Amino acid sequence: MPAFHTGTGQALFSALSYRNTFEVCYNVAMKKTDPAVGLSEQEAAKREKNIIRDESKQSYKSIFLQNTFTFFNLVNFALAALVFLTGTYRNMLFMGVVISNMVIGIVQEIRAKRVLDQLALIHQEKAHVVREGRVRAIPVSEIAQGDIVVLRAGDQISCDGTIVSGGVECSEAMLTGESDAIEKRPDDQVLSGSFVIAGSARMEVDQVGEKTYIAGILKEAKRNKRYPSQLRDSLQKIIKVCTYSIVPLGLLLFGKQYYLYHDSWNEAILGTVAALIGMIPEGLVILTSIALAVSSMKLARRKVLVQELYCIETLARVDVLCCDKTGTLTKGKMKVVGTESFTNEDVVQILANMYTYLSDDNATAQAIRAYVDKKADRKPDSTVPFQSAIKCSKAAFGNTTYICGAYSFIFADPDKDVMKKIDQKAREGKRVLALAREEDGRLTLLALLFLQDILRKDARKILDYFQKQDVQIKIISGDDPLTVAAIAKEAGVAGRFIDMSRVHETDLEELVEQYDIFGRVAPEQKKEMVLALKKKKHTVAMTGDGVNDVMALKEADCSIAMGSGAQAARNTASLVLLKNQFEAMPSILKEGRCVINNIQRTASLFLVKTMFSFFLSALTLFFLSSYPFQPIQLTLVSALAVGLPGFVLTLEPDEKRVKGNFLRTVISRAVPGAVCVTLCVIVTKVIGFFAPMSEEQFSTICTILTGVCELCVLYKTCIPFTPVRKVLWLAMCIVFGCSVVFLKPVFYLAYLPLDLWLAALAEGIAIPYLLFLMYRQIEKRHRKDE
After folding, report:
1. How far is 456 from 330, CA to CA, in rounded Å?
2. Which of 588, 621, 636 is the last residue of a domain?
3. Eight-state DSSP code of residue 144
4. For labeling, which of 435, 450, 540, 767 is most exposed (least CB within 10 Å)?
5. Are 707 and 764 contained in the same domain?
6. Is 324 one of the annotated active-site residues of the chain?
7. Using one digit for the tens of pLDDT, what is the confidence trace for 334-350?
């Protein structure tokens, strides 16, 4: 297996260097196979097969276990079990949120797995091998070491081997990013992941499975990757603080109520559980999961597969987009964009006569056939398909031979003016072919053909959109920097370009900031460029389609692969454009913005409950005789003033640019509501000293005032009001009021005498004014910080 550089401090390698490394490291400790006979079935059965274990794939079992047995879920299941023991089953309604969150995660991951498995099945290749003197087709996973593989145009090489007969033109674009064909003759080594674009040959397999070159790259893709997400990290910080606090708090609360105040087992359990479930922002978790899942489904309708939910958010925060040229910006195909004739001969007819009968099937030949709009009117006497050694194709018609290929190879003494024109076109990103006539030993230049990579539809429009969103564009390719620069200019990126084959590793960090277009980039360099940009505090997205992009995709904050690309790239990427539709990128950005802005706006609703639960737990430990709520009372407030409206608000369109730190913003918005609820409980307890009330009446007043406070926070969240938000807020107020008046037994609410109603009314009137004062102070501080 070829040596593979992975460390930042190791030397970067080029396509040439890893081919040489392969030659040095290659060693086969078994006898050679006869190319005409191949292996016998018995020999093949005993030898190592071409199986690469893909550890990045998850089983259905692992998906279920990872989404079920989380600390968050285990805590909630434990609390539900305690409530179950009390027999008050309606207090277990909070588990609906927990189970929903779990199901969403499982369904999303299974869906992504099925789509990827289907893609792998569609792209599953077969190979033609010689066994016992006969050529037969077998799955690539059944190729054995020492097998003789028949290579034909269009085949993807799935093992490392050596050419033993014939000759082929190979493209290593998937490995190196370079689109130029490489000639392979007997005794030349070929690498897995290459494509045969012309010719035919037989190859003896030297390395299979985990020992192949491509397996070395795939090991980079198998490393577990945790994609960055400010939203996820903020939520996990909140949940971590909450979940690790509830165990000691829960034990203290239960101990105080059961042992000091001698409450019954059921009362102590329900009071403790009510306090603990209030501390866990399970509604915020499910809301985020739903928002991301809905965005994922919207993107799925646009044929975008989301493999990592939080990458939708990450793309909205990206400030550098690294685009691989071949297969991403361009279609990986060529087209004839013009010709220049030097005689009066019908160039199109000549090309039709040649390429109708030539066996060439490379990108150049396909482009010429697409360009020709005439049928052949003559059949050549003989043809010579394209060969790297002569860099041209030939077709003989009697005493006249037409030649199409590289001008400098056809003409031994090239004309300076023609060469100047060719150089000029090369600087414009075009490939130039010469069409010549050979007659009686004399060569005549008939025309020059100008070919160019086909830019993807809307590529310029998409890149222009990202640039307007203050996202830097970096174009990366293994091709000549002049060609890359020309394609980049056509795509609307007209920055400075550099040849990365001449760059030392120590200069990389500065160069990635100074330049926008990079040519002759080795696979390891792509990875190092991404790491260098991240080191400069950039949030980096990377697009790619080849095996050569895998390492960079793995390191990027958000990675996007093409559906027609290499399976390794698809498995590694957080997003897959199933139909190779680059124009879907702005939609992903908009969905990310929508998720962040909406979650940031509504998260404060959920954190109000979390924060006041902590405050009230502390009060209960030191001042109150029991916790002021039962679990189902908090469920009522959470559902009507937090959960349902939060769900509606989170699904609203909002494509504004993301601003501010998520965690700081949501906490500052939640503090006023939490403080207000806590003060209401304290004031109500003080009123109880002057107007005696039962524990049930105390709990009822606290529930009503908490609902009023949360509805006021909802009012603040709905600003600016839209028709939908007006209806939503009024509906929640009406339903909450009706629940308090008509459903008292369901929610364990007590009847209140007039004096207690008046006290509750006075507190309720004071709530909006208190909240207004606190919000105004916070907003002043935010403006001062900005």
Report:
1. 5
2. 588
3. B
4. 450
5. yes
6. yes
7. 889 899 999 999 999 99
